[in-house]
Amino acid sequence: MNRLFIVIILCLMPFRAFAQEDRMHKSDQERKAEREAVQAQKIAFITQEVGLTPAEAEKFWPLYNEMDRKVGEVMRKRNNTKAAMYRLFRSEDGGKQGKGAEPAGSSQGRTAAGDHRDAAEVLVLDIQTKGPSGPIEELLTAYVNSFQEENAIRMDYHKKFLQILPAARVARYYLAEERFSNRMIRQFIDIKIQQEKSK
Description:
The chain is mainly alpha-helical. It has 2 domains: about 1-50 and about 165-199, no CATH class; about 75-165. Helix content is about 75%, strand content about 0%. It contains 7 helices and no strands. The chain has helices spanning about 1-10, 15-25, 30-50, 55-90, 115-120, 135-165, 165-195. It is flat, with a radius of gyration of 20 Å.
């Protein structure tokens, strides 16, 4: 889910400036309350869509929360690795602020989490490493391995989900999670469009 949410945020970059302005006026407590409200909506939506009984929900949601926490940790490591790659390119570039050399969270990047795919496409890799243990190769290995690590976690929990729910209902869960994400994107876009119209 976290990965899907990041992809969603990437699609909404034209609205990023408005969101940043809103975030500047919100306290940590308000942001935490918003996250908790969205999580509660998600739980209710998925529970209803999948048709979880109270007994099934009691088993399913702790597993889901464990998986979500572990996947989140892997994604944070991935983003830190990505940020380290940008810092390495930046230091090799003499500290210039050019495309492909921006650190995570920079204004030219897509998100504060450090997704800079557009900038990375034009990057010229001229860093010379000293054998297979060069810094860029270590970072690349860690970055690519993070996808395997995330997939292993998801597969492990997929098997656990199948132990408490029939396959058709596990499939409903995956589809419901995606529909919930799409619904949240539409709501976000509608709010931002209304805010823009009211200016």
